[in-house]
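Cont'd.
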Amino acid sequence: MSESRQANPTAAILIVGDEILSGRTRDANMHYLAGELNRIGIALKEVRIVSDNHRSIMAAVNALRVAFDHVFTSGGIGPTHDDITADAIAAAFDVAIGVREDARALLAAHYDRNGMEFNTARLRMARIPEGAELIDNPISAAPGFTLENVHAMAGVPNIFQAMVASLLPRLTGGRPLLSQTLRIMRGEGTIAGPLGDLAEEFSDLSLGSYPFVMNGVFGTNIVIRGDDAARIDAAMSRLAMLFPETET
Amino acid sequence: MSESRQANPTAAILIVGDEILSGRTRDANMHYLAGELNRIGIALKEVRIVSDNHRSIMAAVNALRVAFDHVFTSGGIGPTHDDITADAIAAAFDVAIGVREDARALLAAHYDRNGMEFNTARLRMARIPEGAELIDNPISAAPGFTLENVHAMAGVPNIFQAMVASLLPRLTGGRPLLSQTLRIMRGEGTIAGPLGDLAEEFSDLSLGSYPFVMNGVFGTNIVIRGDDAARIDAAMSRLAMLFPETET
C-alpha cells in the first residue's frame, strides 16, 4: 500500500433512540448507512445510540464531531415534544436556532399541495440551527440539515434513506472498502494460529474472524477487508490454501 | 410517583463490532439485551459500537463504566488475533491479565469431553483480568467475566444469550419498565399539539412519538413508558379520548 495515499474520511452515526434502547424496535438506519458509507469509501468508526435527552444528545454530538470527519444523526427532528435533536445540535455548536424562511417555504408548499394544515407543531420542523445547509426530504418535505460536519436526518427509515440519497453526493469519499469472505467449517480455536500469522503478514488488510454455530456445528467466517483488490485476492488465495475444503 | 423511591440502575452496552460497522451484519445482541434489561428494571441509557481496536475499546469502557451502573460488552473474547476485548478491559482498569486456573480447567474439561485439541489459541480464552468473576458459558465453555461493573460476553448470539442468562440473576434490578402503545392513523404534525400538553401533564412518564409511513399513509405510534402501571393506564385513557378511531 502506497504510504502517500490519503486515508479515507472517518464517520460516526448517532441515533437518538429511546425506542431502540427500550428493546421495542430494532434499528434499521445504522445498518443501511453503514453499507452506503463503506460503498463510497467513508470509514464508519463508531455508532452511538443515546436516549431522547437534551444533554445526552449534546454531549454525544460534541464528542463525535471532534473525533471524526463526519457525524450522521438519525431521529428527533419531527414536530412533537420529544423531537429535540435540532435544539441539542444547536446547543452543541453554541449557535442560535429559529424558523428559517427557506425551510418554512418548503413545508408551506408541501402542506398546501397535500391539503394539510400548516400548524404550529409543523412549523417547528422549519427551525434550523444558524449556519446550517438543508438536506432535501423528497418524501415529507421537512428538511434535515448539515451544520459543519454534523448531518441531521429523520428517524423514519424511508425518509432517512431519502435524505442519505440527497446528502451523500455532496460528500467526498475515498477508495471504497472492499471485502471478501471465506466460510470455514471449523471452530475458531482450530484455525486461530495460522490465521494470526496470515493477519500479521497482511497487516495492511483487516482479517476479521467471526465464529458461528450452525446445527450444532462450529464454523468461522473470515472476512478480509481493505481498499486494494489485488491484496485482498492475494490474502484470500493464501487463506484458501491454508484451509482447504471450505466454501467462499 | 413517590419521591423517595430509588431510581432504577442504569446501563450501557458496548459492542465490539467491525462486522457491524462494515454494514455486513446486523446486530442482534443489543436488541436482545435491551429487552432483558427493561424486563428486570435496569434502564439501558446508551449503546456504543466501536471497531476492533485496543484504544477504541479501552476509551469506551472507561467512559461508560463511570457514567453508568453497568456496562455490558459483546464480542472480542474468542481465540483469534482480533479478539482483544479482555486485554482492552484489563488496560482500562489498569489491572494485569493472564491465564487463570479455573478458566483453564473449564476449557480443558470441555475440549477433553468433545475430543478437541486444547491448543495455544484456545488457551487465550482462559486469560482473565485480575479480580474478575467468571460468567458461565454452557455452550462452548470459554467464560465471560465481570470486572467491577463491566460484564464481558461473547459476540456469537446464542452464546451471548446464554451468558446473559447466567449473569442477570446476579444483578439487582428495579421496577420493570412498562409500556403501552397506541397506533394513531394520523401524521405526527396533526397530533403534536395536544400530545405535547399530555406529555407535560404526565411528566412522570415518558411519551414517545414514532411516526411511520404505511402504504403511503402517515401514522404515529405513541408509546407511553414508566414503572407505574396505573399512571400508564391513566395516560392511555386520556390519549385514547384525545384521538378516537385509533388502534391499540
